[in-house]
Amino acid sequence: MGNVSTEWLAAISTGRDYSIDEKKKGCAVPVTPWQHPPVGKRLRDLITKLGTVRELERQEILYPQGRKVSDIVLVQQGVTARGFGNAVSGPKAAAISTPGHFACGNLNFFTRRPSLGTYFALTKAQVVICPKDLLLPVLSTDPELFAYTIRLLESCTLSDRVGFALMAFSPVDLRLKAFVVTWAIHYGKLSADGFIKCPIPLTRNNRCLVANASPVSTDNALKRWKEEGAWVRDGDFVTFPADFVDDAYQWMRSAEESSEYAYPNTFRELMEALPPLTNPWY
Questions:
Q1: Are 166 and 174 in contact (CB under 8 A)?
Q2: Which InterPro entries match (predicted)?
Q3: pLDDT tens for residues 27-45?
């Protein structure tokens, strides 16, 4: 990811803190692709207490190729990514982690199996690295927090699964919209007239990587959006109608079987039901 402004980094420093356990009709938040759910405050605080802070430069590899991932890593500042491939061939697809989300370690938390990928910083970043051997004994003394951690790790795996499904079965335009849905859930503010404002969702190259799309396909999609007046950029921010990405939201909902989680019928209704953002930058 190229150089980003301090305003953009400040805008993504505090995302929406929603509950993965909300089941009330019309208030449940779907599992989002390419961005895991936020880590709850109690678990964040514990990881921060037990872990060690590490600063990362842009494009710095968090774990060298072949090194065992035996920690849980939480992002505190900036953006990190995880991709398939390795440091030689380059990542083939990626998902992202912003402040308050796991950078890595969630996938093999219990099994310690290989994580199959590369973890790196998209921007300058700060992470907390907590060895699982330190965290697990503490979690075992708190059944409530331990159960929450299991539910969160499962939600992270489901997030990856939705991302794979989109890459396998949906066209580029829908994949890009699905990423916008994910980004808006975490960083979007809905106005009374049904428009969503949020920080621009990464750079062009990063959007290509996340959606597993070519630069040409991505450029063509964004050109259409702009020509339709649906995608209006202003500096580090973008505004679009909530209805514009509803087809991606409906696809994500239709891909799931029925469950106890009752999602809102439309993306606008979901945005209306979400907890408010507290970031003062926008």
A1: yes
A2: cNMP-bd_dom_sf, RmlC-like_jellyroll
A3: 899 999 999 999 999 999 9
Token pair of 105 as six digits: 């370690």
Matching residue, tokens 């083939």: 92
The confidence score (pLDDT) of residue 2 equals 56
Torsion of CA 86, 69, 164, 97, to 10 degrees: -90
pTM of the predicted model as reported, rounded to 2 decimal places = 0.92
Q: What angle do CA 174, 175, 181 make, to 5 degrees?
A: 85
CB proximity list for 103: less than 8 A, separation 6 or greater: 62, 73, 74, 75, 80, 82, 97, 119, 127
First to last CA, the chain: 22
| C-beta of residue 245 within 8 angstroms of C-beta of residue 30 | no
DSSP code string of 198-225: EE--S-HHHHHHHHT--HHHHHHHHHHH
CB 14 within 8 A of CB 38: no
Average pLDDT of the chain to the nearest whole number: 89
- Token pair for residue 29? 């938040």
CA dihedral angle for residue 97, residue 99, residue 101, residue 104, rounded to 10 degrees: 50
Q: Which two tokens stand for residue 238?
A: 């973008």
Phi, psi of 81 (to 5 degrees): -140, 160
Q: What angle do CA 144, 12, 86 make, to 5 degrees?
A: 80
How many Å is the maximal CA-CA distance in the chain?
Answer: 57
Three-state secondary structure call for residue 270: helix
